[in-house]
Amino acid sequence: MSEVAKPAEVPVAEVAELALNDKPENGEPAGNFKDSFKAFSKFGDTKSDGKLITLSQSDKWMKQAKIFENKKITTTDTGIHFKKLKSLKVGYLDYNKFLEDLATTRKVDLNEIKTKMANCGAPGVLSVSAGKAAATVSRLTDTTKYTGSHKERFDDSGKGKGIAGRKNLVDGSGYVTGYQHKDTYDNSH
After folding, report:
1. What is the DSSP letter of 7?
2. What does the alpha-carbon distance between residue 59 and residue 62 come to, in Å, rounded to a whole number?
3. CA-to-CA distance for 83 and 98, rounded, in angstroms?
4. Pick from 5, 86, 101, 118: CA 20 to 30 A from residue 67's CA?
5. Residue 188: predicted pLDDT
């Protein structure tokens, strides 16, 4: 009753996938670029499994990698070359073809593009600048620039007067509003 052990069959697709991970891409390790591809293909799409990337995800990736900075490649170029693939989402191999086509057409080094894209970091917002909003808010809240009745609501230091700044309180002193020599009249005459 001896049984001959049969070798386990490995699907061809899985072998091809393993080969992709081990193969260097023009001197650049495939894992780093492929990991970035997976991360950006999931960016903004909760249903994505990381195998297919859209044009908008690709453009976000290239923008973060600063591919568009030198103006040799634009989002219009990426749109034209992406549409040549005749698919809304493309896999890793087709994306590499897209990059090769884009690089040769725009006369840009493919290795440079891939290196920048592999080393740009995880997808996300690069930086948020609050400088313009802060300047606007400070200008609008500067009480020294208030005019008219609004100016009367604050004292010289910029602190609000409270109810006295919002309502005209009756002054029972007998003097008219704006009289500057109050309590200077001498009764000895």
Report:
1. P
2. 5
3. 9
4. 86
5. 56
